[in-house]
């Protein structure tokens, strides 16, 4: 996931910024957002948490590693467009529920 984040940072710099936070050093949001996974991606727009419906049941965050750069760029674009329209919950461009994993 680190490679994907670092490789897309330049591409999405016009509408998104990537921040890496060590949850052991900044424990303020750990209980609020249930941050206990090794890697978690969350989206914020104008200091507001933007939820994303990925089909997994957890709309707060992405807690698995995405390997495709374009897939992550599509998710960030979808979140940005929905957040600009004032939506607090956006629908992901792809369904990540387990019924589609072969």
UniProtKB/TrEMBL annotation:
One GO biological process term: mRNA splicing, via spliceosome
Q: Where does the UniProt annotation locate this protein?
A: Nucleus
Gene3D superfamilies, per the entry = Glutaredoxin
Keyword Nucleus attached: yes
Q: Which Pfam families match?
A: DIM1
Where primarily located? nucleus
Q: Which InterPro entries match?
A: Dim1, Thioredoxin-like_sf
**Per UniProt, which keywords does this protein have?**
mRNA processing, mRNA splicing, Nucleus
> Per its UniProt record, what CDD domains does this chain match?
DIM1
Give the source's domain of life in one word: Eukaryota
Query: What GO cellular-component annotations does this UniProt entry give?
Result: U4/U6 x U5 tri-snRNP complex
Keyword 4Fe-4S carried by entry: no
The entry assigns this protein to a family as follows:
Belongs to the DIM1 family.
Extract the PANTHER family matched here. Answer: THIOREDOXIN-LIKE PROTEIN 4A, THIOREDOXIN-LIKE PROTEN 4A, 4B
Q: What is this protein called?
A: Thioredoxin-like protein YLS8
Species of the source: Citrus sinensis (Sweet orange)
